[in-house]
């Protein structure tokens, strides 16, 4: 699981500013500390209202190796707050 901001401190894009562009089937490569790579395929990109966030679906145990990328979404210019979370669900690609 990786959490990142959609916007950077002081303005500008954050590390997950383009996360919303991912779609099912896209590939994500995570480079491990030892230099090896883990490759994941995006299963779903979902938006959840912050007051209805499905904690177990996002943070719960999975049957196999999975990745979750999480950031804020649903910016409301009237309040200056993000009302949603964007979650990318991805599964490890074997072989």
> Total number of β-strand segments?
5
Secondary structure tally, helices:
1
CA(first)-CA(last) distance: 22 Å
Sheet of most strands: 5 strands, mixed
CATH architecture annotation name: Beta Barrel
Radius of gyration: 14 Å
Describe the strand arrangement of the main beta sheet, using strand numbers: 1-4-5-3-2
How much β-strand is present in the residues?
Answer: over 45%
Can you give the helix content as a percent range?
A: under 10%
Order of helices and strands: EEEHEE
InterPro entries: Sortase, Sortase_dom-sf, Sortase_F
Organism: Kocuria aegyptia
Pfam families: Sortase
Protein name: Class F sortase
Give the tags.
95 residues, mainly beta, Sortase, Chain: A, five-stranded mixed sheet, 5% helix, 45% strand, Sortase_F, Class F sortase, Sortase
What order do the helices and strands come in, and which of them pair?
Blueprint (H helix, E strand, L loop, with lengths): L1 E2 L23 E5 L5 E13 L5 H5 L6 E11 L4 E12 L3
Parallel strand pairs: 1-4
Antiparallel strand pairs: 2-3, 3-5, 4-5
């Amino acid at each position: 699981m990786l959490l990142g901001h959609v916007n950077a401190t002081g303005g500008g894009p954050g590390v997950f500013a383009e996360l919303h562009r991912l779609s099912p089937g896209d590939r994500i490569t995570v480079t491990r500390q030892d230099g090896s790579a883990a490759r994941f395929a995006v299963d779903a990109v979902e938006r959840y209202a912050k007051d209805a966030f499905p904690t177990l679906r996002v943070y719960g145990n999975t049957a196999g190796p999975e990745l979750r990328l999480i950031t804020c979404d649903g910016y409301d210019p009237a309040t200056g707050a993000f009302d949603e979370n964007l979650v990318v669900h991805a599964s490890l690609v074997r072989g």
